[in-house]
Amino acid sequence: MSLEDYVGNPLWPVLVETVHAMIMYSHHKAYIRDVVLHEQPDITSQNLATKLSIPLGEALVILHELQKQKPESK
C-alpha cells in the first residue's frame, strides 16, 4: 500500500490528529528531517518505523508532511 493510498483513506485526518497529539512527534519529525532523510532520502515508512521504533502511523504522517514541505523549500 502506497503513502497516497493511506492519505486518500477517510480515516487519514484522524491518524494525523492522533500523531500530532503524541508527545514525541515534534522531536521525531525534526530528527527524521535533519538526520534520517539526509542518510536515507528514500526510506520507506515501514523501514523508518522499524529503525526508530515508532508506530507505523507516525512514520506515515511525518514522511507525508516532510514530502509536502520539499517543493515549498525549492
Measured between the Cα atoms of the first and last residue, the distance is 28 Å
The value of Rg in angstroms is 12 Å
What is the strand tally? 0
Structural class: mainly alpha
The outline comes out as globular
How much strand? under 5%
Helix and strand run: HHHHH
- Kindly report the average pLDDT value: 92
| Helix percentage range | over 70%
List the domain count as a whole number: 1
Q: How many helical stretches?
A: 5
Low-confidence stretches: none
Main sheet attributes: strand count, strand direction, barrel closure:
none
Give structural notes:
The chain contains five helices and no strands. The chain is mainly alpha-helical. It has one domain (3-73). It starts with a helix and ends with a helix. 15% of the residues are buried.
Tell me briefly what this model is.
The chain has five helices and no strands. The protein has about 70 residues and is an all-alpha fold.
Give keywords.
5 helices
Write the layout of secondary structure elements.
Elements: H1 3-7, H2 12-20, H3 25-39, H4 45-52, H5 56-73
Helix pairs in contact: 3-5, 4-5
